[in-house]
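Moderator note: this is an archived Q&A kept for reference. The question asked for a predicted structure of one protein chain; the sequence and the answer are reproduced below.
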Amino acid sequence: MTEKSLIFFDIDGTLLDHDKNLPASAKEAVFKLKEAGHIVAIATGRAPFMYKELREELEIDTYLSYNGQYIVFEGKVFHTNPLNLESLEKLTAAALLNDHPIVYMDHEDMKANVLEHAYINESIQTLKINHFPTHDPDYYKGRDLYQSLLFCAEGEEKQYEEAFDHFDFVRWHPLSVDVLPKGGSKARGIQKVIEKLEFPLDCVYAFGDGFNDLEMLSTVKNSVAMGNAEEEVKAVAKHVTTSVDDNGIVNGLRMVGLL
């Protein structure tokens, strides 16, 4: 096992470029890693239904969705960490008073608590996915939800951070933040996989670019920030590669000696 490596890739801004395309060099690199016997996994804030085609294209069956709250290992659900529904109901009520809509998300679908809102349209469209939230204000009732999206302008999430200690709020768009179980992160999800495999920490790698990658990149020993990452993200990573648009995956893998 010590001869193998375990490599986690974020999706947006890491595997996918800014137009949400997978660079040919990144795809080739993933298959070279697999051919060499390494384990390639995905660690993303996306829902599993948002990147099914990407997993199929790269033939990846181990992945962390919702920033580690829904983990699939070799095609089977391995670990889940759902949101506290009582607190989510209170958050919804508080957000409605401020005209801040919420989208509820489980492993199969996502539903908005309002019929229409400009913030939802603008932020979701940047993901360039075929899946758009439809209206169901009761979707949170009687089911496990692993993440929600709270739509508000930058800085407006502070009031919720102070009032709801069951949740972490991580901004992914100027108009939207992820709502996660307190302490839930990609880093914790990766730790679950490492423990299952009894994998040596020296052989674990992680690539990312966003604020939801901060804990992952600061925790994983062999971490690589993309050149397009924010300076705060680059500062916690061990290595910084080139931009996703400039063969960032290939250059990063060469930098750490995996290619």
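Archived answer notes: The chain has a mean pLDDT of 96.
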